[in-house]
Structures are given as structure tokens and as C-alpha cells.
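Key idea: predict the complex, not the pieces.
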Amino acid sequence: MKKFTVAVLIIGAFILYSLLYGHANVVAVLPKNSTNSSSSGRGSSTSVVPATPGTTNTPGTPGSLYKDGSYTGSVADAQWGYIQVKAIISNGKITDVQFLQYPNERNRSIMINNYADPQLTSETIAAQSANVDIVTGATDTSQAFIQSLSDALSQAKA
Amino acid sequence: MKQTRLLMGMPITLEVVDPIVSPDDLEKVFAYFVSVDETFSTYKATSEISKINRGELPTAEYSEDMKAILALSEQTKKDTNGYFDIEHDGLYDPAGIVKGWAIQNATDRLKAGGFRNFYIDAGGDISVAGNKDGKLWRIGIRNPFNRSENVKVLALTDRGIATSGTAIRGQHVYDPYNPNMPLLDIVSITVIGPNIYEADRFATAAFAMGKRGIQFIEKLVGFEGYMIDAHARATFTSGFERYVLHS
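Result:
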């Protein structure tokens, strides 16, 4: 009888422990999963500065449309191949979009991309100070206004 | 001779170096841009495009220019796998193709008038012909993060160069209210093409493609591109370097 009581106590303690441990484990596993899967990105990840620095540990922002975490999008047909992206949300904002799939899976795409991708070069932009005759850049209405005004002022100088 | 006018909501600058040029020649080019605006501006209630969008004009009464623009838009939509589309919510906004087309027509008119050395700059989309004082035209690509700076200086002749992009507003965060545009990490893409019509339409389409835009330009024969992302990284095509001025 004494042995039986001990056995029940041990089993009971084990069940209690495993319930508690199991619960703790679920909590620990969830964020781990999301970071693990992000490593399967294809190296085209671009991180973006969060809009509110200093609140990065807040697990969600009240009133936000999005919950924090990483979300994998569905596979989309982009004519030359498939695209799949993963969005990382922190502080309720999209802070990163990673490409999980890029159009190089299909034969036709490989043919196209073999010509294209290895040729591209990247650099960090830096000022080139040589004199210019004309400037190209994206315009919007306010930019056009600034450009026009500065041109008007340059004419006023002469 | 050089002049700037504010037309079509942007500054248009003409410089003609040939000594035969008269103020009247420049005036004709500006008048042409005014007439294009009268036809294609969606901001003008009286324009042909506004009448079409209100359903007031039967197809049979479209002007030749309107038919041309609609056909070119349809062709460009095919050429860019649907990334270029002037139709949104059932309405036409052909601004993305009219600008380059108009600059190209103005270029052709100046050439027909015997001019060889000039440029036309309409809001940063540029057509260059010949040279200035024996030197190629020098064109800066503006730093989208600092308007007073150029990140590249190019030397061009008889080409078109156009930049499509967004103005940077201080933060590089995606707009969560625009779920259709998750690739706003591309700030601008500059395209050099055989003429301004081609450069402009493909710059617009390539920008809409996001990161893949530069690959699209790489695949096009006779085009080069320089793409700047939100992290101030540039990616450029294999033949781009040959246009960069090395002084």
C-alpha cells in the first residue's frame, strides 16, 4: 500500500510536471519556429528600420492592423516563375520582406535568368561630384515645384 | 539657347546648341507639349482623355494621337507582362506613357527642323541628341536621399534616360495600408534606352516590378539600368558602366 501511494505520487508529480513543462515548451517553441524558418530565405532579405526605435521588444502595438511575427505568403505565379515572400511584422509594422522563392525554378526561367542575374553588380551609392548639364530623378508634384523654383532662382542669378 | 517652362505639372527644359536656333523654334516645342497636355491630362475636365473616362466620347471619334497612345499602352502592357497598365478601376491614366512619347515626338520635330545638338528634359526624363561644345551631354542621377547630390554622372548622346521612383519621406517603412505594394524598398530605377519613349515606358514598368525590375532591364537588348533601394544600395546592369563619366 505504501509502495502504491509512492507510485501514485510519483506518477502524479510526473503528470503535473509534464503539463507545466509542456506548457512552458509551447511558449518557448513558437518564436523559435518563426526565427528558424526565416533562415530558409534566399539571401535577398532586406531589413527595414522600425518606425519607432526603442520599442522593439513590445510584442505588438495597440490599434495596429498586424500582429507581430513572421508570415509566409502563398506561392504566386509571376509569369517567368514563382514568387513567395515572407513578411516580418514587428511593432505592428512590416519591417522586412524576404523572398523564399524567386523565378528560377522553371526551365524557361533558368534560360532567361542565366543571361540576366550574374551580370548585375551592386554597390553602395556615393556622390559623384562632376559638373552636369542635366539631372534625372523621380519627380512628384512637390519635387517638380522645387526643381522649377531652383531653376527660376538660378536664372535670376545670371 | 536654353529655356524652362512649367507645363504638364513639371518643369520642361530645352537646350538647343545649334547656332541656327531662334526663340521661335523653342516656342514651337513648348506649344507642342501644351497641346499634348490639352489632350491627355486627366486633371483637365475638357481634355479628350477626361471625356473618354466620363464615357462621353465614342471610340469612332478618338483622335489619332489618342488611338496611338492606347495602342502603344496595350503593346507596352504585353511587353512588360502586364506590369504596365494605364487602366485603373476602369479609368485611363496614360501619364506613364504620354510623357516619354511626347518628348520623343518633340525630339523628332527638332531633328526634322535641322537641329542636331540639343536636349529635352521633362521632369527628369531626358532626350539627348548630339553633344555640347564637342562633349557628350553630362547627366547626373540624382541621389534620392539627398536632392543636392548626384550618385552617378553619365556621358550620353542620342539616347533617352528616364527615372521612375518614389520620393523618400524620411522613413523606410512599408506602408501597411498599401498591401498591394509590398516592394516599396526600391526607391528609384533609372533606365537608359535607345530613345526616351523606350526608356520611359520600361522605367515605369521596371519600377512596378520591384526588385526584379533591374533583371527585366538586363534582359532587354539596348537598355541599361541603375536601381537604388531603400538601404542606399544600387544594383546596375552589365553594360551600365560604359556610360559612366570617368573624369
